[in-house]
Design brief:
The complex is a heterodimer.
Chain A: E1 32-36, H1 46-50, E2 56-59, E3 62-66, H2 76-80, E4 88-92
Antiparallel strand pairs in A: 1-4, 2-3
Chain B: E1 9-13, H1 14-25, E2 29-32, H2 39-50, E3 57-60, H3 64-76, E4 82-85, H4 87-102, E5 108-113, H5 127-131, E6 138-141, H6 145-160, E7 168-173, E8 181-185, H7 189-196, H8 223-252, E9 259-262, E10 269-273, H9 277-290, E11 295-300, E12 302-304, H10 308-315, E13 320-325, H11 336-345, E14 353-358, H12 368-384, E15 391-393
Parallel strand pairs in B: 2-3, 4-5, 5-7, 6-7, 10-11, 10-13, 13-14, 14-15
Antiparallel strand pairs in B: 1-8, 6-12, 9-11
Helix pairs in contact in B: 1-2, 1-6, 3-4, 6-8, 9-12, 10-11
The chains are: A alpha+beta, B alpha/beta.
The structure holds iron/sulfur cluster (2 copies).
Residues 34, 51, 53, 55-56, 66, 71-77 of chain A line the site of one iron/sulfur cluster.
Chain lengths: 95, 396
């Protein structure tokens, strides 16, 4: 049988380096988008802790907004934002 | 280095011999869930662990699905991993078997062949490992306790070979081989250790300087290429099986090939059969040869990958072949070994006649007279050139 290697695919389907999730857009299937009300936000960063896709952007302990390439619109941040504050609203992506 | 013919013989059951080989190999991790008739392998081996005779981490899991899952995790983390099972245990591992081979993890599993339910039966047949024949595992079958013991060492080398990197299943017959005591030659501890060598994984999850991910998704854009690579690796492993069988022979005096032939060279008719029943068949061959019948035997050792070219070459001058399966494909077209051998012979210009006979399911005895009867049928086919019954059950 004449055989040629297909390409340089890593053996066993292994991803051969770390941090490759950055290169994969998980924001593509978002139906709802989180919208931040900066005036209400207390920078408690609970949303940053809870976001399953590390899509909450922070700097110097401050909540800055969302990484929309990776935010999948699950709404966990909006639910977890403390009741007294409720600084995140989920809005229809279509609107 | 001295070539050792071993230092005397020792009487061991198949299970005890496998456990002893595992002790000599000293794997890093052994996740296990015991099941009849392979239970004594893990029982004996856990004794070695408790006595501190090995460094192995024995993980007592809650099911065989978990056993194979733990094997996969440990192997991905860079460990040399072994386990053993039978029957329903192997069936419960089924989902994970494909993951082990797809991830190219060199896990070693001893399958002590046992029938599958229903009805519940604990005795020997090959339905379990035949059910896993398309799972991407290399499969070695063993006629005797000695061969099962020898196969385990070779399995480690085959699986971990850089051209292969695939899991290997070593099969031996439940009770007939697993529980019968046979005098075997043991390999010296130091030489066993030297033969299997140290396992240096190609890549592993605990290498934090080079982080990798195992078990990622692969969609239509490259899944087929991964499978193509895997398919080539298992096809190519045949050469490695031969190479290591030769090396084993040089070192320990017992050489292994892809299959064994017995008085086949000038044979008019032949039986093709796996594992312990080959021994019974050889007795029949000797008896019939004394009466002047030119009969022979071919016993595949490597079933996955299937050495179709070599088997075809070995059978090309035979007039009639009986393939005896200790498993039924439930296809209405004979057993799995029959399908493969028949398909391999198709490429010959002048093909032998070939029949399928299913024998010994659920531990039913297969006796010398059964083999003699099949040879009788084959002789009639040789004379008349006609196959009257293509597939049927014997030993009923
Ligand atoms: S909607 Fe979900 S994914 Fe997006 S930022 Fe909030 S928690 Fe993260
Ligand atoms: S959880 Fe609410 S209040 Fe806390 S940082 Fe996030 S948006 Fe601001």
């Amino acid at each position: 049988m004449e055989e040629k290697k297909d390409n340089n695919l890593p053996l066993g389907g292994v991803i051969p380096k770390g941090g490759t999730a950055h290169e994969y857009s998980t924001g593509g299937w978002r139906k709802l988008r989180p919208v931040l009300d900066k005036n209400r936000c207390t920078n408690c960063l609970i949303c940053w802790v809870m976001c399953p896709d590390s899509a909450v952007i922070t700097e110097d302990g401050k909540m800055l907004g969302f990484d929309m390439e990776h935010c999948k619109g699950c709404g966990i941040c909006a639910v977890e934002c403390p009741d007294k504050v409720k600084a995140i609203k989920m809005e229809e992506e279509a609107e | 280095m001295a070539i050792t013919m071993t230092k005397g013989q020792v009487g061991l059951t198949g299970n005890a011999a496998i456990a002893y080989a595992m002790k000599q190999i000293n794997p890093d991790v052994c996740p296990a869930y015991p099941i009849t008739p392979s239970t004594a392998i893990i029982e004996d081996f856990s004794g070695y662990v408790a006595d501190g005779a090995v460094d192995t981490e024995l993980i007592t899991v809650e099911s065989e699905h978990s056993a194979m899952s733990a094997c996969i995790g440990a192997s991905a983390a860079g460990a040399r991993v072994m386990t053993a099972t039978s029957s329903q245990g192997l069936a419960l591992m089924w989902e994970m078997l494909y993951i082990a081979s797809g991830m190219r993890l060199p896990i070693i599993l001893t399958d002590v062949n046992r029938a599958l339910s229903a009805p519940i039966n604990i005795h020997c047949d090959h339905s379990d490992s035949m059910g896993a024949r398309d799972s991407g595992w290399i499969q070695l079958y063993s006629e005797t306790v000695q061969e099962a013991y020898d196969n385990l060492f070779q399995a480690v080398r085959i699986a971990e070979h850089r051209k292969v990197l695939l899991p290997v299943m070593v099969c031996l017959d439940g009770f007939i081989t697993s529980h019968a005591i046979e005098n075997i030659s043991l390999i010296d501890d130091a030489e066993a250790k030297q033969f299997v060598g140290e396992y240096i994984p190609r890549q592993h999850l605990l290498d934090t300087d080079n982080p990798i991910t195992y078990g990622a998704m692969s969609l239509p854009e490259n899944y087929i290429e991964f499978k193509h690579e895997q398919s080539r690796a298992i096809a190519g492993s045949k050469e490695v099986v031969l190479e290591i069988g030769k090396e084993f022979g040089k070192k320990f005096g017992r050489e292994y090939g892809l299959f064994e032939t017995y008085r086949l060279d000038d044979a008019d008719t032949a039986i093709v059969i796996l594992n312990s029943a080959a021994g019974t068949t050889k007795v029949a061959v000797d008896a019939l040869r004394k009466q002047g019948m030119k009969v022979g035997l071919l016993r595949p050792r490597l079933f996955r990958p299937f050495p179709f070219k070599e088997i075809t070459a070995a059978l090309k001058n035979v007039k009639a072949v009986g393939v005896l399966d200790r498993a039924d494909s439930m296809s209405g077209f004979g057993g799995p070994l029959f399908s493969e051998v028949r398909s391999a012979l198709y490429d010959l210009e002048a093909r032998p006649k070939i029949i399928s006979r299913i024998y010994g399911l659920g531990g039913r005895d297969y006796k010398v007279k059964d083999a003699v009867e099949v040879f009788g049928e084959l002789d009639r086919i040789r004379e008349t050139g006609k196959v009257e019954t293509l597939t049927k059950y014997i030993t009923l």
